[in-house]
């Protein structure tokens, strides 16, 4: 029997895209999964769309109060019972072989954390940049300078390392969580195959780099406990790498 994969999904006002995301999970060749979807009190018909799918593996929880993506992910993580944790935001997309390839690699290579290539797409899931390549082993040290791990393309083994929650007081909760994980896991291993699509929406918080430099600084200062000078150094590296990573989008 293959190990259970827990898929963690926060959603908020995702009616426009959620059906494509759901179908990408239902099409997985690896079938032993549970999908913990936490709706952050959507104002559209996201919840109605999800409830149309009569699959016992899809486990929806609707929060009574909006608390942000990190809080919604934590709600799903607390309910998760699988060995492997995978993340899929409510507007992203997996290729059918995603879960099977990721879990096979982890088992065959005794890996605790893996990530793969992913396509960077517009709202119609058409590529707008070259694929982001999983071409380096990720460590705590190199993740400080740029966040190579994306929820849509990363999986870890809770049997080996336990669960890692997201800080709800940071707007850079993904980066903080990955850094905390890599304090325990020596390295994240790359799978050099494109198996996911990341939808780069025009109004995405992660696209507004100028508005989140302060938030990124606080990743180092408040959450990593670095000095002011050290925090500024890593913030500068992150900003430069972010510019190089996204500067050609929608020009």
TrEMBL record:
MF annotations from Gene Ontology: hyaluronan synthase activity
E.C. code: 2.4.1.212
Main EC class the enzyme belongs to: transferase
Keywords from the named record: Glycosyltransferase, Transferase
Residue span(s) of domain Glycosyltransferase 2-like: 6-123
TM helices/strands, residue ranges: none
InterPro entries: Glyco_trans_2-like, Nucleotide-diphossugar_trans
Lineage top rank: taxon: Bacteria
Protein name as it appears in the record: Glycosyltransferase
